[in-house]
Amino acid sequence: MTAGKKFNRNMKVENTLQEKLIKKKLSLFRHSKHGFGFCIRGGKEHGTGIYISGVNIYSKAYREGLTVGDIIVKANRKLFHGLSHSEAVQFIRAQKQLQLVVVSRGILPEQKLKYTEYQWIDCYGELCSPLRSSLIEARKDNLRKVNVVVTGNNKLGLLIRGGSEFGLGIFVAGIDENSIADKCGIMVGEQIIESNGVSFLNITQKDASFLIQNSKIITFLLKDVSKIPVSKIVHNHL
């Protein structure tokens, strides 16, 4: 069976499920260059519809009831069935207001992950032992909350590394001197466990960046692991 036929079959099954699920209608708007407070995953190139993969808990989208796992059926009367990921992103970014129709499955489509071998460095740039990711997920002790407010045209000044596409969490890899992140005490070598209540244990780097960049008020849940992943070799699973 070709990949195209397999994707078509997946989308037909998904469409049948959408017809049986209860639809939700949401009315959203955004100010100036700020986003709508959510990020998406999927598209026809992956054989799926367009899914909500993250929602900022301080956004109107969250208050309206948009949740991770919702499938966008329609936006401003435009059907999202058959759209690629880039087509969906371009359409949403071009809108000032969104009239969304979504259905909720409560789960996200699987992504083909890349298997990556890593070296790890400590906060001084020296090679160190690898981080056991299972340890971070299993132990929730020694966590700290950091509240951040980004005002005006100021930037957070935070560089992140990692992401679920690499089989990793999200780590603080750099802090701009005298930036908001620096003044709030965020440190290189910390792992971001949550941001505004959204778990960062299984999130892509792109989605994590989107949620952080589109938030003016952020509550981070951090764990000091004192090390950072450095990409070495990436193997694509075909």
Describe the fold and architecture.
This protein is of the alpha+beta class. It folds into two domains: 22-104, Pdz3 Domain (Roll), CATH 2.30.42; 114-132 and 141-231, Roll (Pdz3 Domain). It has six helices and 15 strands. It has helices at 3-20, 60-63, 85-93, 133-138, 180-183, 205-213; strands at residues 23-29, 38-42, 50-55, 70-75, 78-79, 97-104, 114-122, 127-128, 143-149, 158-162, 170-175, 190-195, 198-199, 217-224, 227-236. The strands form four sheets. Strands 9, 10, 11, 12, 13 and 14 form a six-stranded antiparallel β-sheet that branches. The two termini are 15 Å apart. Mean pLDDT is 79; it is low at 1-14, 112-116, 134-138 and 233-238.
